[in-house]
Design a protein that fits this description.
mainly alpha, 2 domains, two-stranded antiparallel sheet, disordered N terminus, disordered C terminus
Length: 483
Amino acid sequence: MQLNQIGGNLLSNGLLVAVVVLLHVQISAFLIGASTMTIISECISMTRRSGDTRHERLAHGLVRSSIYVFSFGSALAIFFVLFVLGAVWGRFFVALQQITFWTFFLEALTFLAEVVLIYTVYVNWDRLRRFRKARLGLLFLLNIDMWLQMFFIDVVASFMLTPNGGDATYINQILNPTQIPLDIHRTVGNVAFTGAIVAAVAAFRYLRATRRVERTERAVATGMPAHSVGAMAASALAAEPAEQAEARYWDWVAQWGAVFAIAFTVLQPWLGYSYAKEVQLHAYPAWVNMMFGDLSNVFLVQITLLGSIFTLGAAYFWRRMRAVRASHHRRQGAIVVLLVLVTAFAAMPAWFAPTYNDVVAAHLDRPFWDGGLLNPLGNFIPYKVGALFAMVFLTLWSLTSYLRALSREELPAGRTGRRAQLLLVALGVVVSVMMIVMGVIREHSRQPFLINGELTISNQQILNNQPSLPGGSSSSVQVTPAP
């Protein structure tokens, strides 16, 4: 079958996909992470006898927010499949569907199950309060279904990067060498991302609540306006404890989200290295592009963002501990300084040029102190690996010190300054940008291919080494670009 050349430009073929996909990835990450955090909070609320309703309120709030996010995210996903893949990248999508049809079919089934489960939990949340175990069971089913949906999408994404030389049998798609590392990496990252978003939103709500408290206190201290009566003043005085309780709640939620964000992000350097190692072993040109090619400097952005996440988390812990003069708060301040220094060291480039090939082409592949463009202190091994170890060690030290102070009840909620909350807002932004950068690196690494080594981006041209379909047959689509 002869197909004509497909036109396109940066906006329709490149930027459109990037914006839609990166936004959808963050939406799906939040939904899966929120489902996990909901289960944890619901379990804690079921086991506590102290009358503390904060965890149940948080779990309900996560379910409600998930409904709004899911409604928009599902519409975005349908738009992506019908208009972006079906129209702009139709030739590629048809070829991919021939290879991964049943994977997409199973993913669609999990989507339908997700619709049923998430709306069932949301609508019947209050009705199921008397049947907490049944509600928890529905939450577990929803979480498993969301994870399976991510799993099937990762099967397709992994095949596009490491297609096993065209072996497209379904068992080899599922056992793709980059599939399991990507699943683990995304599972942990989803919870970290959701924790950061929860912390950022709660910090914003805390700032609003404290402003209302301050306005009420000023009104009471200076006297009510002339048209106000005593009843209104009494109402303001009665509202003050409620506003303070609201501020304490959001401070507690912000702290809860920050702990999740930092604790799970600590695992990512090792998980990311495991994933990159599989890429090196099974998609070597893509790995070279990441380490030495156009993406090498993007990796510097990534490691800087990672260090920034750890630094912002430690800075939040320090400010919160310092506000109440908790034990070891000065140690937290020292950890923040050390994390800044380690991040700056890790961000040093290995060469002062866009790519390593540019250094070689200029015959300047020698250290900068010898007049070259190489910076040996920026090499991944051992310096950046050492910096990553230092980041993880310092962050674990900071996190455990904070949790120790929390377990001693040295950190009462509601006694946090605004700067600490602004640090959490910045944390949410940095984590979101970090996810975008990781997506750009992964998807850009296999260029000029859509399916690595099998189907090109330019004209969506299928090469002669076509992927074999399940059952041993091969794709019948043959592309001849128009003259």
